[in-house]
Amino acid sequence: MTTHAAHAATALERPAEQQQASRLPAWEQPSANIREERDAYVLELEMPGVSKTGIEVTVEQNELTIVGHRSDVQPQGEAVYQESHRADYRRSFELDPSINSGKIHAKMEQGILTLTLPKAESIKPRKIQVAD
Amino acid sequence: MNLIRYQEPELATWSPLNRLASLREEMNRLLDGSLAGFAGSAGLFGGWSPTVDVFQDKDNVVVKAELPGMKKEDIEITFQEGMLTICGERKQESQVQEGEVFRSERFFGKFHRTVSMPTKVEADKIKASYKDGILSIQLPKAAEAKAKQIDVSVS
């Protein structure tokens, strides 16, 4: 914790540009929950400090990338005690071909991003009627 | 002698959401976490503790706690003898799990966190707000604490 406070203190002293540069590669990995439902997979990510407008969800090839930019401002004054990283969030997942990546739905609520990844029609369980 | 008539061949286990370069990321996560991350997520005491920051300027002490996915009603803030306590419970929305769970990193249940104030504050003027999963508590410094500060800056 002391190292964090010290780090924060040195970061404050640096000019804004440099600070930006040194902050860029440092991402915080959000905690995730993934569960399966009948028609979809549900992915929940904890990103406190990120509002709806700070979310970027991209799908490239079969890689799902979620970036969350913090919009909360750091309080004024000196840090007495600091545990938060203050870095933006980023995490990638590999998508199975069974996911219909064109229909991913995202919802942001109180720092939790919920992504619904629908299963492709072809893999959904199908009931087959027995003909007479 | 086995009397197994027919056994379904075991289905190959497949994971629909493999984490990219998972091992390396996992290692980074463990190493990055350091003490703060550990304190923030440790379930050692039967609950979890949110990440907390404490800031102060001339007039106020500001406490911020990362509490994503809470309901405002489920957060309880108490102040007593210079100690600010944040506690509550994060409830899991869907208790019924139909399918498989692939990843479960989030903490649910009761949490509790107490921080001591660096100076005297006015207990009846404490204000709190909850936005984007962050709880912010503003505690105005007591007049006597402010007066002391001015003395120091003059001398």
Quick structural summary:
Chain A has 132 residues and is an alpha+beta fold. In chain A, the strands form two sheets. Chain A has a four-stranded antiparallel sheet with strand order 1-2-8-7, with no helix packed on it. In chain A, strands 3-4-6 form a three-stranded antiparallel sheet, with no helix packed on it. Chain B is an alpha+beta fold and 155 residues long.
Can you characterise this structure?
The complex is a heterodimer of chains A (132) and B (155). Chain A is α+β, with helices and mostly antiparallel strands and 132 residues long. Chain A has a domain of 91 residues: Immunoglobulin-like. Chain A is elongated, with a radius of gyration of 20 Å. Chain B has a domain of 84 residues: Immunoglobulin-like, CATH 2.60.40.790. Chain B has a 4-stranded antiparallel β-sheet with strand order 1-2-8-7, with no helix packed on it. Chain B starts with 21 loop residues before the first helix and ends with a helix. Chains A and B meet through β1, β2, β5 and β6 of A and α1, β1, β2 and β5 of B.
How is the topology of this model organized?
The complex is a heterodimer of chains A (132) and B (155).
Chain A: H1 2-13, H2 16-23, E1 32-36, E2 40-46, E3 50-60, E4 63-70, E5 78-82, E6 89-94, E7 105-109, E8 112-118
Antiparallel strand pairs in A: 1-2, 2-8, 3-4, 4-6, 7-8
Chain B: H1 22-41, E1 52-56, E2 60-66, E3 75-80, E4 83-90, E5 101-104, E6 109-116, E7 127-131, E8 134-140, H2 143-154
Antiparallel strand pairs in B: 1-2, 2-8, 3-4, 4-6, 7-8
